[in-house]
Amino acid sequence: MIQDSDLEEDAARERQGSGGHMKYFVEPNEKFIERSTKDFSKFFNNANYARMLDRLSEDIYRYYADNLETREEFLAKMSFMEAIERVIRKRKWIRHFLLTDPSIMSEIDHLDYVEAKVPCSTNQMQIRLRS
To answer: Are 48 and 56 in contact (CB under 8 A)?
Structure first.
């Protein structure tokens, strides 16, 4: 049953002409922005903290570069996911999610697990395959 409040909301949306979405006006909290800018600028003025951030970013970049997946790892991961999909599709999807079908769980347990790595973009994959 349609209530008066629903009709009023619909009328307000139509008046705004926003295609059914309400318009919101956001006013930035200038004091918070100024205070945050001042607080964060202190971090970068501290030479010790700046060196720590630099080391952290190098560690993150090194980890990212060391853990990029190769084409073979990508294909192994995809075949693992497809194998799980085939096991689940043989039966009803909902039974898998409720974990009430022991035969699905035993079949999945017998699949070889593939560890996920940092995915490469298509360009990175092409560059790595060429070298």
So the answer is: no
CB 51: neighbour CB atoms within 10 A? Answer: 10
Mapping DSSP to helix (H, G, I), strand (E, B) and coil, where does residue 115 land? coil
Residue type, 38: K
Condensed to tens digits (0 to 9), the pLDDT of residues 57-90 reads 899 888 888 888 888 888 888 888 888 888 777 7
- pLDDT of 129 strictly over 60: no
* C-alpha span between 77 and 103 (Å, rounded): 22
Amino acid at position 58, single letter: E
In our burial notation (b when 16+ CB lie closer than 10 A, e otherwise), range 89-108 reads eeeeeeebeeeeeeebeebe
Nearest to 69 by CA among 56, 78, 58: 78
